[in-house]
Write a structure and sequence with these properties.
The complex is a heterodimer of chains A (about 450) and B (about 80). Chain A has about 450 residues and is of the alpha/beta class. Chain A has 3 domains: about 200 residues, FAD/NAD(P)-binding domain, CATH 3.50.50; about 70 residues, no CATH class; about 130 residues, no CATH class. Chain A contains 13 helices and 19 strands. A 7-stranded mixed beta sheet of chain A has the order 7-6-15-16-17-14-18. In chain A, strands 9-2-1-13-19 form a 5-stranded parallel beta sheet, with helices on one face. A 3-stranded antiparallel beta sheet of chain A has the order 10-11-12, with helices on one face. Helix content of chain B is about 55%, strand content about 0%. Chain B is an all-alpha fold. The chains are: A alpha/beta (about 450), B mainly alpha (about 80). Chains A and B meet through helix 2 and helix 13 of A and helix 3 of B.
């Protein structure tokens, strides 16, 4: 009998596991995949290292800054600032037809850019920033008001509104078209007021630190240990049955598998309406170049592009929608030490439709992957230097890939649009954490695991 | 443990929670939260570390006594005086 069982060894599960093990609990963490990380993982292919999900870590603050989610989670997990090895971004861009807004980790740059391109809106933008600052912390997302309404009432130029929504929705809106103002505020702060960074060796560095710590504290991590079902008795979880048929028991269970996914494991379909699963997923490509992107004139860390004045945020009806997307080069961060010279990486991401990808026969799937890779790059190079002649290797993944390795319905990267902020379920010893609890991104997921562990699994009986 | 030893143990806990802070200058009678960046989650960690290390259970109603270093030591004294160093 364990004190706690955690389902899923992603960011939120690992953070929760460290908290529980630190305070002496006997913890077992179950992961179906053979690697940890979930939505933020890594793999090796053709002698190259790849990250999944990681463009950049948001909520960056330099060493010594003791406020904000990054400092808080480092304290809670007893890590030193240096442990995550974060290097800040060089600078990023929002690119729409005929107008760009540059930003970096100093909010003054975005303000100056808006003052230059939208002089009549700068005071309104400052008012919006104040409203966002007043809106409560990352741990307490609560309001259910429309971000489109609030931002639209404050900023009058519709183009500026779209340009602000573009990176924010691409970076974490689980709901289509509109989002809660609370979620908008959290993401706005994490991107524009705090900032972007990356560990020099990618996400594997953070994951290895987390796993190492969890094990050092006596935590038990079982890979290739998928949960087949959760048996229920008297309003409580009785046993966790694994894919191999064996069963485990614990006083409390914390699941990062997702809300709908977890409820289905409990064989309580009545609780889950099908509409609750998230619909937004991505096609993503990682192109390896024989030059560094900056030698081609690509100097940004990220470019969020959109090719019309209106930014659409919904599941595409086609396999993908490449009218907008994210470009990111992991080369363009301010690293202390040099990266491998002579090679570059360009990562491209665009919205995609899980059902369409999932229904393709194998051969067609492969063909479409190549086809949409080409279309995505062709769309992006309208906003950035054309890197195509320098591509030496490509890997592409689709919503189907994400679904396969994370188990999340529809490969939905930001989870269900209906968040479960308090983390409780109809079963009194089962709780959820991760993207469906309410916080997305690497830092958000870590905070989710920490707060849910504190509130529900460490609380005194 | 003597009051001085209890104080040292509390500082030890604070140092683990706030590795980047200089705690040598802490004033005993000024609220801790005015001297170091200590949010409610960190504050709860002091309580949990005391439970983990010394098996001391502090009810929520008593948290008010832990605002300052001197208050904390005074509150812990009867609970920790019989513990070995």
């Amino acid at each position: 009998m364990y004190d706690s069982i955690i389902i899923g060894a992603g960011m939120s599960g690992l953070a929760a596991g460290i908290r529980l093990a630190h305070f002496g609990q006997r913890v077992c963490m179950l992961e179906r995949h053979y690697a940890v990380g979930g939505l933020n993982s890594y793999y090796r292919l053709g002698r190259r290292n790849y990250d999944v999900g990681l463009h950049a870590v948001t909520n960056y603050r330099p060493k010594g800054d003791k406020r904000g989610p990054l400092a808080r989670l480092l304290r809670q997990l007893r890590f030193a600032w240096e442990d995550f090895g974060l290097a800040p971004q060089v600078g990023s861009r929002i690119a729409f037809p005929g107008v760009t807004l540059d930003f970096n980790n100093d909010p003054a740059l975005l303000e100056a850019e808006i003052a230059k391109s939208f002089p009549r809106e700068i005071d309104n933008f400052r008012r919006l920033q104040t409203e966002i600052l007043d809106y409560g912390g990352i741990e307490t997302p609560k309001a259910r008001s429309s971000a489109r309404d609030i931002v639209g009432q404050t900023i009058h130029d519709p183009l500026l509104v779209e340009m602000l929504f573009c990176p924010i929705m691409l970076y974490g809106s689980a709901s289509e078209r509109d989002m809660e103002f609370g979620q908008f505020s959290i993401l706005f702060r994490s991107i524009f007021q705090e900032g972007l960074a990356r560990p020099i060796s990618g996400i594997r560095m953070i994951l290895k630190k987390l796993v190492q710590r969890f094990k050092l504290l006596g935590g038990e991590l079982r890979l290739r240990a998928g949960v087949q079902r959760i048996t229920v008795e008297g309003g409580e979880v009785r046993e966790i049955v694994l894919d191999d048929g064996s069963a485990l028991a614990a006083r409390k269970i914390l699941s990062s598998a997702g809300w709908c996914e977890t409820m289905r494991l409990c064989e309580m379909p009545a609780v889950v309406e099908p509409i609750e699963s998230g619909q937004l997923s991505f096609i993503e490509s990682v192109s390896t170049l024989n030059v560094e992107p900056r030698e081609l004139g690509y100097k940004q860390t990220m470019v969020f592009f959109n090719d019309s004045e209106r930014f659409d945020w919904q599941r595409p009806s086609d396999l993908a929608d490449v009218r907008s997307g994210v470009v990111c080069s992991p080369n363009n961060f301010c690293y202390d030490s040099a990266t491998a010279a002579g090679e570059g990486t360009m990562r491209l991401t665009a919205r995609a439709n899980f059902i369409r990808w999932n229904s393709l026969p194998e051969e067609e799937y492969r063909r479409e992957k190549q086809h949409w890779y080409e279309r995505m790059v062709a769309s992006a190079v309208r906003f950035i230097p054309d890197f195509r002649p320098h591509v030496v290797d490509v890997d592409v993944f689709t919503p189907k890939t994400i679904r396969r390795f994370t188990g999340h319905d529809n490969g939905a990267v930001y989870g269900t649009p209906k968040k479960h902020y308090d983390g409780t379920t109809p079963l009194k010893n089962l709780f959820i954490c991760g993207t469906d609890q309410g916080l997305v991104g690497i830092i958000g997921a870590l905070i989710s695991g920490i707060t849910m562990a504190n509130r529900h699994l460490l609380a005194r009986e | 443990m003597s009051p001085a030893e209890i104080r040292a143990k509390v500082i030890e806990i604070l140092a683990d929670i706030l590795p980047d802070d200089d705690l040598s200058q802490l004033k005993d009678d000024v609220p801790l939260r005015e001297q170091v960046e200590l949010d409610s989650m960190d504050f709860l960690d002091i309580v949990m570390e005391l439970r983990k290390r010394y098996r001391i259970q502090i009810p929520e109603d008593d948290y008010i006594h832990l605002a300052t270093l001197s208050g904390t030591v005074k509150y812990l004294e009867p609970l920790m005086k019989d513990l070995p160093k």
